[in-house]
Protein 1
Amino acid sequence: MTAKLTASADGSKILIGTAAEDALEIDATTKTVKALSPYVFEASNGVPAGTIIDFAGATPPAGYLACPLVATNISRATYAALFDAIGTAWGAGDGSTTFGMPYFPADTVGVQADANVGTQTTGVIKNHTHPTGSLASGSVGGAAWGNNAPLNAGWATATQNPTGGGANNLAAGARVRKCVKY
């Protein structure tokens, strides 16, 4: 990629970007730098606003917010770069001064998406049963099991019991703090 540097006619502004898009505007009069694209990388670490990371510590690193466990609105002005990057994908907030930040309910995982970013999914486990019963005397082994007999042919009583467990289907894994770059 080739960088492009353009100065205004009076020399008060410089535009830096690519042939396709200007990314930064440097104003010599006000001595400010303005991002013209929400995807401008920070010079300090190269991570764009809106990037979500898994962090192993309890406190988010500098420049990051901990993603909450429930839908949470934050200021569009205070977190302008984050708002420019993600918009209202995670919630419109009050519609003018706040927006929804990325959130991840406890004990859920992020799911890759090419659309509907910011929406939540609900885990589902397929309904099924497990056979139970007691073995009839002398019915184990021998030809009965080798002649395509039904799986529970050796059971004196066979019933179908629904599976048990917790209220949620919880994936095994290590807990980390989800953080978003602002």
Note: The longest helix spans residues 80-86.
Protein 2
Amino acid sequence: MHEQWKELIKPEHKLLDIGCWDGKRILELKDRCDVYGLDIDKTKFLGADEAIKNRLHEGDILRPLPFNTKFDFILLRDVLEHLYGEELALENINKGMNVGGHIVISTPKHIPFFNWYDPAWIRWSFGGEPHRHFKKKELFSLLQSFGFEIEDYHLEGTIHWLFTRWVNGFFKYVLRSKKQIKSSWKPGYFNWVIVAKKEREI
């Protein structure tokens, strides 16, 4: 189930990665279809590979997509939880996609009495930047209300991922260090991954 959505990509498809940072996913997929990246902070592009720098665009998902084309795939990985206005973001995404296209979303899961697993959620609870956790019913209803039908979903984030998240938070916010421990995404417990198909215009 892990990233099986990639098997749906065809050479004629157009794909947009929202919240693309330095374009690593764009670089990975550039030989499979026509790829583009969008990020609100263009300084993230400074470390991008030269092969895809011209594919990266500055923009805010809370505004209409700055492209004169519609997409067949839109990736929204680790973005939705940071927004004040997820409804507007999904409206803009719907308008920027072809009917029959797919959106791939990852975002944290709400776990009653255990949301403190996420240091970013704790910071938000004490007045920091938004970092929501979503219940399954809430997230599915949100997508369906903007014209998307759920085709597949699973959970990612192992206990090892949880441990490294806290260690990296300690390095970043307590020690003010740039040191980070890497942890790959694998099936687990903490992050929703949803593949949904655009069924209708809104």
Note: Residues 4-109+130-158+185-198 form a domain with the Rossmann fold fold (CATH 3.40.50.150).
Protein 3
Amino acid sequence: MLTSIETVCASSPVFRHALLTSEKKRIVGVIAFVAFFAVLAAVRIFVLGSAMSRSGLVVSALVIAFELMLFRAVNQALRSDADLGKSVWYFSTALECLFPALGVAYLVSSRLLPDYRPLATPWVLAFFP
């Protein structure tokens, strides 16, 4: 007999609690990963004088802010034994998948030759953590 994850979550509060606890750990990992690259980019821009786009720092800050709000929502869901909506998880997954791709596509230095931009940016490292 096959059951969907929604059926298991609805019938087992322990499983739902374990799933949300796992999500908390994943969110902390995403925040640490993005913050690490944001700090590296800031050092590279402001200390070393790199020609990287500064808008990448703003985008990183927005992603970190979203992840912190998601972390808060997961904590509230754990305390109240509630579940977050599917749209929150879909948006979170889409954002986390698109973040490095958009960085490689739009947040690279315009001083580099177009052929080398995707390879000469630290954003490409986000694909291979």
Note: The chain has four helices and no strands.
